[in-house]
């Protein structure tokens, strides 16, 4: 079973890229972030024509998350991260697919830091940690996939000294990710590639992709019930080189 996560950076504007990648890679389950489309503007028919059932939580111009599955309609569990009834951002959706609980998330960027946006990022991280703990307590196979907007270690960022004050790399952000993982989650890519330089995002500016000046900010966290079945993990980095593509590349894992 192949599960992928992809920050598409605008699902309608990047639809040709998304459909090309779906045909090429043929993942069984896909988590999408940054749809940047209201609920009624999600390209459901085009996704269906590509062979995928979908559930999604849209938002005009910003955010937005979706879960696609090839063989069944994902059974939605929730489209809200618990803990803040006032939070109107479309950043989380959770469903059961083929017996696996899949949480698709788009964690706040948090810049500029310090400031209100950074405070929101850390509070969102804390809510995620609380929810993740309740998921672990259910002792089910769980995959938490998406754009976490954090580089966990210096290995995950090109020239880390340039990022020390950025919300994606500040000590508080990295500590929040480490605390979350320490609950018992497995960082899939890093587990299979412990010492490799792996990036999932390259900025549009300063020829970042050409220079391989990237960041690893898209992650899979696996519960103990599924971590032992992890067989492969990687990044379809060539997709970042396509025309009119996202600044992220698709990331994937294979589960036996």
UniProtKB/TrEMBL annotation:
Class in the EC hierarchy, top level: hydrolase
Its EC number(s): 3.1.11.2
Matches recorded under PROSITE patterns: AP_NUCLEASE_F1_1 (PS00726), AP_NUCLEASE_F1_4 (PS51435)
Residues reported to bind Mg(2+): 7, 34, 147, 149, 247-248
Cofactor note: Probably binds two magnesium or manganese ions per subunit.
Sites marked Interaction with DNA substrate: 248
Cofactor: Mg(2+); Mn(2+)
Domain of life, per lineage: Bacteria
Keywords, comma-separated and alphabetical: Hydrolase, Magnesium, Manganese, Metal-binding
Active site feature: 106, 147 (proton donor/acceptor), 248 (proton acceptor)
Family: Belongs to the DNA repair enzymes AP/ExoA family.
A GO molecular-function annotation: metal ion binding
Marked site positions, Transition state stabilizer: 149
Site residues (Important for catalytic activity), renumbered to this chain: 218
Gene Ontology BP term (one): DNA repair
UniProt-recorded name of the protein: Exodeoxyribonuclease III
Positions of the Endonuclease/exonuclease/phosphatase domain: 4-248
InterPro entries per the UniProt record, alphabetical: AP_endonuc_1, AP_endonuclease_F1_BS, Endo/exonu/phosph_ase_sf, Endo/exonuclease/phosphatase, ExoIII-like
Pfam families: Exo_endo_phos
């Amino acid at each position: 079973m192949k599960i992928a996560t992809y920050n598409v950076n605008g699902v309608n504007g990047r639809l040709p890229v998304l459909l090309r990648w779906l045909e090429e890679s043929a993942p069984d389950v896909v988590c999408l972030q940054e749809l940047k489309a209201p609920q009624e503007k999600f390209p459901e028919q085009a996704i269906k024509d590509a062979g995928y059932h979908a559930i999604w939580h849209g938002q005009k111009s910003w955010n937005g998350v979706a879960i696609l599955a090839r063989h069944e309609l994902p059974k939605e569990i929730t489209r809200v991260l618990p803990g803040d009834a006032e939070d109107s951002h479309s950043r989380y959706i959770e469903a059961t697919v083929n017996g696996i609980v899949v949480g698709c998330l788009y964690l706040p960027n948090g810049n500029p830091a310090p400031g209100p946006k950074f405070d929101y990022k850390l509070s969102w991280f804390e809510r995620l940690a609380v929810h993740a703990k309740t998921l672990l307590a259910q002792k089910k196979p769980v995959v938490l996939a998406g754009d976490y907007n954090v580089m966990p270690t210096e290995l995950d960022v090109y020239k880390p000294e340039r990022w020390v004050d950025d919300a994606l790399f500040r000590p508080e952000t990295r500590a929040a990710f480490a605390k979350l993982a320490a609950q018992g989650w497995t960082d899939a890519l890093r587990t299979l590639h412990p010492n490799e330089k792996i990036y999932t995002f390259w900025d549009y500016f300063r020829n970042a992709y050409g220079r391989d000046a990237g960041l690893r900010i898209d992650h899979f966290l696996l519960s103990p019930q599924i971590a032992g079945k992890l067989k492969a993990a990687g990044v379809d980095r060539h997709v970042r080189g396509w025309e009119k593509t996202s600044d992220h590349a698709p990331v994937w894992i294979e589960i036996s």
